[in-house]
Write a structure and sequence with these properties.
Layout (H helix, E strand, L loop, with lengths): L5 E2 L4 E4 L5 E8 L2 E3 L8 E5 L2 E4 L6 E6 L6 E7 L4 E9 L5 E10 L5 E9 L10 E6 L4 E6 L2 E8 L4 E6 L8 H4 L10 E4 L1 E11 L4 E11 L2 H14 L1 H16 L11 H16 L16 H4 L8 H14 L2 H14 L24 E2 L4 E2 L5 H17 L3 H21 L11 E2 L6 E4 H20 L3 H21 L1 E2 L4 E2 L2 E4 L5 E4 L8 H4 L8 H13 L28 E2 H13 L3 H13 L10 E2 L6 E2 L5 H19 L5
Antiparallel strand pairs: 1-2, 2-3, 3-4, 5-6, 5-11, 7-8, 8-9, 9-10, 10-18, 11-17, 12-13, 12-16, 13-14, 14-18, 15-17, 19-20, 21-22, 22-25, 23-24, 25-26, 27-28, 28-29
Helix pairs in contact: 4-16, 6-7, 6-8, 6-16, 7-9, 8-9, 8-10, 9-10, 9-11, 10-11, 14-15, 14-16, 15-16
Length: 646
Amino acid sequence: MRDIPVGNGSLLVTFDDKYQIRDIYFPHVGQENHTEGFPFRFGVWADGEFSWVFSDVWERSLRYVPDTLVTDVDLSCEKLGIEITCNDTVAGRENIYLRRVVVKNTAEKTREIRVFLHHDFRLYENKVGDTAFYDPDTLSLIHYKKNRYFLINSSPHFDEFATGRKAFRNSEGTWRDAEDGHLYGAAITEGSVDSTIGVFKTLDAGESFEFYYWIAAGTSRHEVAALNAHVLTRGPENYFLESEGHWRQWVNHPDIYDGELPEAVTDLYKRSLLIIRTQIDNGGAIIAANDHDVTERATDHYSYLWPRDGAFVANTLDLAGYRDLSRKFFELCGTIVEDRGYFLQKYNPDGSVGSGWHAHWDKYRKQRLVPIQEDETGLVLWALRQHHEIYPDSVLVHDLYERVVVRCADFMADYRDEATGLPKPSWNLWEDRLGIHTFTCSTVVAGLRAAAKFANEKGDHSRSGRYETAAAEIVEGMCSRLFDTGRGHFLRALTAGDDGSLYPDSTLDASVFAVFYLGCLEADDPMVVGTMEAIEKKLTNKTKIGGVMRFEEDGYMRGAEPLPPNSWVITTLWLAEYYIARRQMDKALELLSWTAKHALPSGVLAEQIDPITGEPRSVSPLTWSHSTFVATVLSYLKKLREPETH
């Protein structure tokens, strides 16, 4: 779990619930993680006693300064007689992470207080071949390997420092050196290394002192030295003033906050926009989540661009008024789309193909497979059309028409079963089964209709008609093949067997909300009503926590049976979207308030919520959770402001 991320689109710093830096991504959001998830420790020595703030003797409050990406952290330790207030931010234009630290002596006597800050870099995501040294030219510590440099400094200047070996034989690291109140380590160390600095101050009873600490990231010693000089010349305090002012202006768009929402919902709306921004790379990649803890159970992470997640987030950004961010996403899509007209499972933040588990070859039937989740292709076209309708952009459409729109629409129109008219089997949005999925069909319809509109505007009428016909045939096939008349709701899928045969999967799945959300059928269509009422009845957790699970008997991250499946933020909000579409506004607001209630104190939303304890589960923050909340709030306000029709 990551409680308070701060970043600027190329440098992202995340913290765990103990207020330890756990991830430092540079030069892309999500790539590379120069800590591998290992903690940077923060400790205090006073009167011969030492304590790291991750220990249980500390009380911690991790939040943000309202409407900003500046943290507001309170730490207190009654045993040591110490209170600490911290603020963290990343500079908007330079790759500099900064922390303001205010330490108060709450004891009734004069004492020397020593604050220690530890750094466990693993550059290029491994601990081999790093160097940490004291640089007399900049009076700072520098960690480097190849083209990655991180410079560490403070104002007032730190009193002691140490570099040393870590995670090697019996060497735990220089953080152990700090625990006696002094640092004795070397001026330079190579290999598997860490470093620690100490800032010392004598304080009278009740007295406080303030210092600033920063880490500059760059690709050369010269670059980080220049950033360090800039901080010293400008003054670190000015970065905080600029950061607060910038983010307040950025997040407070007009015409949104008119007192129509509970304060908690409004606050989470703004916090969600800010957190979404921390998860977007300046090159256009919208990253699913940056939380290295997941690697402990999955040997992989969520620091990828899934085109599906990215399309939904880009659409949310457009609805909320942040067209420049979504435009960069679409431009990136134009560079990563496959020649055959589809997007692969996921991509690294720099646009290279990410890890995947969708096979290209069927080893039993000896034939080629298309390794895709086709919803990702359909949703990119849908989101691009939504972008163009809100912010007409002839230049972007011109650049992407042949390369993305036509290429992808031709693929989707052709990649269909002749007998049913439905898309051929592909992997579903949950990435756990192959088949013809109701959700995927809905996204393909939305993508083809989007392409038809682009083609019509281009005077490309033959293509426009072809795409419209294909979309209509898919809707017809969905109604005849994917609706379970006995159960009264849409099937999850026609599941593909090993021999290529298809059989109905009647499992109730919240993702079939897409039938109305993406416009295949109206929200008041009897088939939609029956489906959404079944979701409300069968997928809402009946515990005191509530929320909506993904599908019946979902086992992902689930506790031991007979515990119910976890509730998901996005699926809960999908039900809210249905309530909004049917103008059941009180029920929709209940689910928006439910989401705000289950955010972390900082406002961070996880992927899932434990249905018994209400605690967050899986990664946090999940970008899709935050974007779905923002989109649902905007849907709610739009419907609320529309005149009722009878």
